[in-house]
Structure formats: C-alpha cells, structure tokens
Amino acid sequence: MSESAQELESRSSISPKVCVIQDGARRNYMVPLALQEIGMLDRVFTDWYAEDRSITKGFSQLMRRFDKIRGQKMLDRHRAGLDGRRILSCPLLALRCELARNQFSSSEEYFEWFSLKFARWVRSKGMGESNSVYGYIRNVHPRLWDFASSKGLVTVGDQMIAPSAVERREFQLQQERWPGWETNPTNCAWELVDQMERESWDLLDHIICGSDYVKDGLIAEGVESSKVSVTPYLPSGAGFPIVERKWDPKPMIVGFTGAVGLRKGAPYFLEVAKHFDPKLVKFVMVGKIGLDKQVLERNLGNVELTGAVPRSQIQSWLNRFDIFFFPSTCEGCAGSVVEAMDTGLPIVTTRNSGTIVRDGVEGFVRDYTDISGFVDAIQKLVDDPELRHRTGVASRLRNDQFTLDSYSTTLGSLFGSLLQTGRI
C-alpha cells in the first residue's frame, strides 16, 4: 500500500471532534446541539453561559431585578439539552469587555477588539481533543482561525449574512432611496468588517451559509464556489406549532416580525399597505422601531406598529397573522420567515431575505422594489382562501424537511469529508 493510500485510510477512520466557537447565543446554540446529537461535539467556547446552579445564572437573576431586559437576555444564554460540561465560558472577560463597549466609535471596532481578546482566551485554554473548529465569520478573529489551522485542525466558518461588500451596497442604496428615514443610521466600520471577512475566507477550509443569496455574494467577492455549501438554518427554538386559521377572516392580517428599519424593507412594507382597504386587510409590524418618528407619522397609513416585544410573544403574534410579508433587502437566512413558515403561514418575501420559500409554492418571491408585484401577490392570497391554505401547508411541509436530525447529518458529513481530504 502506498503512503498516500495509507494516509487516506487513516483519515477515513478519524471521527470528527468539533470545537464550536461562538459569542452570544447564536441561533440558540443550534450548531453545538446538532453536533452533540451525533456525538461529534468536543467543546464550546462562549463568553457567557447561564448554566443551572451556576454563578453566572445567579448573577443574571440578580441583574434582572435592576434591568429586566438585559437580565433576561443574560438568563437566556442557555439551551436545554446541551451538555453543560462541554461549555467553557469566560464571564469575567465578558463583563470587563462590556464595560469597555462605549469607548469605541462603532460596534464593529468594539467587536473586532472583543474577538481578539476572546481569541487569546481560547488559545490559553487550548482546543482539547478537537480536530475541527466551527465558528462565525465576523465574530471569530482571523488570528484564531490561523491558530487552529496551524495546529492542523479543519476550520469551518459560518457566513451569517451576505458579505459586507454586498451589505454595504444595499445599505447605501436604501439610504439614498429613503433619505431621512433613519436619522441616526448605523455608524458601521465597513472597511474593518471587509478586512476581517476576507482574511477569514482565505484561512478557512470551508464556508457554510444559510442561502443561495449569501453563496452568490461570496462567489461574487472572489470565494471559490467549491469552498461554499448552503445549509438553510433551522428555527432558533424548538419550532412553533402549526395553526389552524379561519377560512375567511375579516379583516385579514398581513404581518411582519423583526426590526422595523431600512434593511428589513420597512418603507416597502408601508408602501404596499397603502394599496389595501384597512377595513378588509390590516397590516401589522412587530418589532423594535428604528425609523424617524416624524417620517413614520407621514407614511404610516393603515399600518400598526407594536414596537419591541418580548421573544415569548412572537408566537402569539404569528398565530394572529393570515399572511406573512417580509420585504427585506439583505439577510443571511431570515429566522423570522422560518418561524412564520413553522406556523403554516403563506409567505411573501424577497430573494435577498435568504429565503427557502419557492415562488408559487410556499408563497411568492419578488424583488424588494416590485411594489406592484407585492400588491398582486398579497391580493391573490387575500382573494383566494384555498391558495392561502395550500401555500400555508406547503410552508410547514417545507420547514419540516429541515430538522435537527437532517442538520446534524449534514454537519457530520461535511466534517467527515473535510477530515478525509483536509490537512489532518
């Protein structure tokens, strides 16, 4: 047997042992949970984790007494079913870095600084028995990817949203189209984000993303197609139950969940709503409002804005909707759409949302500038209860194809293949 054949046989016998690196709850810890399901999770590095009977949980409960929203977010840094013995957190570092946040002129500069601190902490702890690493591009510092590669580990990065060059173009375009709608637009350090992305792409063995929209953006920015695979994201929680909706309710409710701002397509939502009689069709946007109050007053029309609501209330709002309308201009794989599909809602959205919706099957997909196309699609659903029912059922069936088991299998196959052909 030749040496190369021996190496190939040796690699094929290696079982993936994956180290997951993530700040925050990132998709409600779906990746480590999926890897744990198939016995491939070695450890998880994260900044804050409120494990039962831990000091961090006690501190989070105390914080909630003084700041209910922030304290609850800290408590939510936990996932039932995930083996806490595999979690390595750095609460003191997380608190020190949080106190330093206001010293930076942009969130990107802060997160670059934080990710470098986090990378140094991970290096000090070591990678254990891991032979592979999974992390989130823009959040894992390139130096940590480089360190993992130097140790011979297979590296996989998750591109959560379209590349910064694409996101920046859309951001600037929406600012030009809707001047004054956001009086304090995000001060984004685009060059820094772009630099971190490109350095990461070069260092990674493979890139995973949630949609063809993101993959196309990566390829357009010079990443080899063979280096990228698409795996749609699962709902961030356990999944919402399907809802048996009334056959012909009056008025019908067209709903949206998410941040009410330019990136999510709020002006297009408001414009489409003007074409409908509010006595027959009601439009509702559920989420934090990021638009100028005076501009909203002039353009709100018959749209109801709820403002920010607790995560626990999203399901009840989705249950009230009859149609879900999400005209986003730039996403990765929008969790809002996935959750709406879980409840059996027909969807009207854009390709830029990174959607798994197929035009004419689970609903309708239009360009976010196609106001008449949106109006026509929503009107068809309003007028045809059978179409609403058929597309709503198709939405849930489409979501059911993407289970935790199938996601685990996909990740397992990916890491297994990379270990056989990679540098191990």
Walk me through the topology.
Elements: H1 3-12, E1 18-21, H2 26-37, E2 41-46, H3 55-66, H4 68-75, E3 87-89, H5 91-99, H6 107-125, E4 132-136, H7 142-150, E5 154-159, H8 164-177, H9 190-203, E6 206-209, H10 212-220, E7 228-230, E8 252-257, H11 266-273, E9 281-286, H12 293-299, E10 303-305, H13 314-320, E11 323-326, H14 335-342, E12 347-349, E13 363-365, H15 371-383, H16 385-400, H17 404-421
Parallel strand pairs: 1-2, 1-4, 2-3, 4-5, 5-6, 6-7, 8-9, 8-11, 9-10, 11-12, 12-13
Helix pairs in contact: 1-17, 2-17, 3-4, 7-9, 11-15, 14-16
Short key terms for the protein model shown above:
17 helices, 7-stranded parallel beta sheet, Rossmann fold, alpha/beta, 13% strand, 2 domains, 6-stranded parallel beta sheet, 13 strands
Task: Quickly count the domains.
Answer: 2
Over all CA atoms, what is the radius of gyration? 22 Å
Tell me about the largest β-sheet. 7 strands, parallel
What is the N-to-C order of secondary-structure elements (H for helix, E for strand)? HEHEHHEHHEHEHHEHEEHEHEHEHEEHHH
Strand order of the largest sheet: 3-2-1-4-5-6-7
Query: What's the CATH class label of the largest domain?
Result: Alpha Beta
- From the N-terminal CA to the C-terminal CA, the straight-line distance is 19 Å
What's the CATH architecture name of the largest domain? 3-Layer(aba) Sandwich
Shape: globular
Average of pLDDT: 91
Low-confidence stretches: 1-11
Number of strands: 13
Give the helix tally: 17
* Sheet/helix structural class: alpha/beta
Helix content: 40-55%
CATH homologous superfamily descriptor of the largest domain: Glycogen Phosphorylase B
CATH fold assignment of the largest domain: Rossmann fold
Our estimate of the beta-strand percent is: 5-15%
